């Protein structure tokens, strides 16, 4: 073997390191051993997880916090299929991750051999692209292509299905790895006429609203948005994943609209004469009934993905392109309109319909979450799981900067919050990371406490423990005559003792009077992960609420005094 001949796995790992990768998350198995062997001499740190789903969520959290692709390495068969939920989560939220799956040898493909699964076929709808590598000479090129596709245009997950005989093959490390992808337009040039039309619409509007989504964060458009908001005096609302694109303490920020958004954000959308959507896909949790969404408002949609244009909401002006570039080109064309009356009205709504909760009585989840966010500070990264606590965190954790809020929006993946916090903590060890989780979702991936403990990551796990699958219970209470089914989490463990069993620290919180004291003690503990077991009111509900399929003007500010009909087609 010449000095330039190495295993394909060794060459691949070197190329991955050249992409700026610091960590690979995964679990080994027979078909992936050549790749794990190549990591022994690599500067890339292997994060050994306790489950492949956790590995995918860690890579996702790392990617969102760092802006770099997250990488997962697993074996074939069940190792590969265990990443599917993580792939869906990343796909729905446009997160760049590269998942490398070991596979049976090429000669055994299709023979149903041990731990064989057609992972490329299974995941076809969930990935931006997938590769089944049969020629070892192609692996260097494919590796570079995979990272390029995952991280450009509208980001998303990419699968590399890698047979064991391919990764074990000897190749020349200098093999040509250049690539060209015909038809892949990852950076479409926006049409100047569309930009001019949008600028004219904004300049004429006296009641405009910005609707900012995750695409604006991916684009890095914070500066451009702030400049236009200042020049044009336009109020801002953001989607769940758009939190942080514009400072939430700014006087023109109105919070999150939609199903559990603020009343004043929803009122602003309902009464606007123009809605400017930037990197938001008019999700049903925002739009409710798309056929009746804000019919009196003109709509502008800026998005890099042409597939999102007019998909659910028909718009009056569409601009296909990178949000930051579009807004930068638009700025000089804008002429300030008179929005003074509009801003006064918006300010009145903000004053008259504040987000609120009662601190009296049993410990409230909202109180604990709000206090933790204040103690953590504006530089902290907040990750969440999915459920009531997620909505309360969205309402009461004020996010000031992009990439400081990490949550599963499109897929609504329970079990995401804690492992994504591990990835986020590795992206920047200097930052405080708080995982806000529920007692339902946390138990789906709590085995990763061992991973966090071994890494000595001082993650604060704020466990909202109400012994219920709270969001489903709320719906059953409101729409199914309080017929509760499958939501009572009988037999929850003692989470403080559970933390101790994993070598972590546990704090118990039961009384409102102890909130600041207990949370301060948790914030000061930095020897590893800690769980704050907050035993909160069991049957509290999230308000405001727009029933699924309803229009925004049907939002409820408090529990109804009568049974609601289940919205048609609601989920």
Automatic annotation (TrEMBL):
One of its GO terms (biological process) is L-valine biosynthetic process. The keyword Ion transport does not apply. It is an enzyme of class 2 (transferase). It catalyses: 2 pyruvate + H(+) = (2S)-2-acetolactate + CO2. Keywords: Amino-acid biosynthesis, Branched-chain amino acid biosynthesis, FAD, Flavoprotein, Magnesium, Metal-binding, Thiamine pyrophosphate, Transferase. One of its GO terms (molecular function) is acetolactate synthase activity. The keyword Ion transport does not apply. Residues 385-533 form the Thiamine pyrophosphate enzyme TPP-binding domain. Binds 1 thiamine pyrophosphate per subunit. Binds 1 Mg(2+) ion per subunit. Pathway: Amino-acid biosynthesis; L-valine biosynthesis; L-valine from pyruvate: step 1/4; Amino-acid biosynthesis; L-isoleucine biosynthesis; L-isoleucine from 2-oxobutanoate: step 1/4. InterPro entries: Acetolactate_synth_lsu, AHAS_TPP, DHS-like_NAD/FAD-binding_dom, THDP-binding, Thiamin_PyroP_enz_cen_dom, Thiamin_PyroP_enz_TPP-bd_dom, TPP_enz, TPP_enzyme_TPP-bd. Its EC number is 2.2.1.6. Belongs to the TPP enzyme family. This is Acetolactate synthase.
């Amino acid at each position: 073997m010449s000095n330039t001949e190495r295993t394909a796995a060794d060459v691949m790992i070197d190329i991955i390191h050249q992409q700026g990768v610091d960590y690979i998350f995964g679990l080994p198995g027979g078909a992936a051993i050549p790749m794990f062997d190549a990591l022994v001499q690599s500067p890339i740190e292997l994060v050994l997880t306790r489950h492949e789903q956790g590995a995918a969520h860690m890579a996702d959290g790392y990617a969102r916090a760092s802006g770099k692709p997250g990488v997962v390495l697993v074996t074939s068969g069940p190792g590969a299929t265990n990443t599917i939920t993580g792939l869906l989560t990343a796909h729905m939220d446009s997160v760049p991750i590269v998942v490398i799956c070991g596979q049976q040898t090429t000669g055994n493909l299709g023979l149903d051999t041990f731990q064989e699964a057609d992972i490329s076929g299974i995941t076809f709808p969930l990935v931006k692209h997938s590769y089944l590598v049969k020629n070892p000479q192609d692996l260097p090129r494919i590796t570079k292509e995979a990272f390029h596709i995952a991280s450009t245009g509208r980001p998303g997950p990419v699968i590399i299905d890698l047979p064991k005989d391919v990764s074990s093959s000897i190749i020349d490390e200098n093999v040509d790895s250049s690539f060209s992808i015909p038809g892949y337009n990852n950076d479409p040039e926006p049409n100047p006429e569309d930009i001019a039309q949008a600028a004219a619409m904004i300049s004429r509007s006296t009641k405009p609203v910005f609707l900012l989504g995750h695409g604006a964060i991916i684009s890095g458009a914070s500066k451009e948005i702030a400049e236009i908001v200042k020049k044009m005096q336009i109020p801002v609302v953001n989607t769940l994943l758009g939190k942080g694109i514009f400072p939430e303490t700014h006087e023109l920020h109105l919070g999150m609209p939609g199903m559990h958004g603020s009343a004043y954000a929803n009122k602003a959308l309902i009464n606007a004469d123009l809605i400017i959507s930037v990197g938001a896909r008019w999700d049903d949790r925002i739009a409710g009934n798309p056929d009746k969404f804000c019919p009196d408002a003109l709509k502008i949609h800026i998005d890099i993905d042409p597939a999102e244009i007019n998909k659910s909401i028909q718009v009056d002006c569409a601009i296909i392109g990178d949000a930051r570039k579009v807004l930068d080109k638009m700025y000089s064309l804008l002429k300030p309109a008179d929005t003074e009356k509009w801003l006064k009205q918006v300010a009145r709504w903000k004053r008259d319909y504040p987000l609120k909760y009662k601190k009296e009585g049993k410990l409230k989840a909202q109180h604990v979450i709000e206090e933790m966010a204040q103690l953590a500070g504006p530089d902290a990264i907040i990750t969440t799981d999915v459920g009531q606590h997620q909505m309360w965190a969205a309402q009461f954790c004020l996010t000031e900067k992009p990439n400081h809020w990490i949550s599963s929006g499109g897929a609504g993946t329970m079990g995401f919050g804690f492992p994504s916090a591990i990835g986020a903590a590795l992206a920047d060890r200097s930052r405080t990371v708080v995982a806000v989780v529920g007692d339902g979702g946390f138990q789906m991936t709590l085995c990763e406490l061992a991973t966090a403990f071994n890494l000595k990551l001082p993650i604060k796990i704020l466990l909202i423990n109400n012994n219920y699958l709270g969001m489903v219970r709320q719906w059953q209470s409101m729409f199914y005559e309080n017929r509760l089914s499958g939501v009572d989490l009988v037999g929850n463990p003692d989470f403080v003792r559970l933390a101790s069993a994993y070598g972590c620290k546990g704090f118990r919180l039961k009384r409102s009077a102890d909130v600041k004291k207990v949370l301060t003690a948790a914030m000061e503990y930095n020897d590893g992960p800690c769980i704050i077991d907050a035993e909160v009111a069991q049957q509290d509900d999230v308000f405001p609420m727009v029933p699924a399929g309803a229009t925004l003007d049907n939002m409820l500010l408090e529990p109804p005094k009568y049974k609601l009909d289940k919205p048609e087609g609601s989920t």
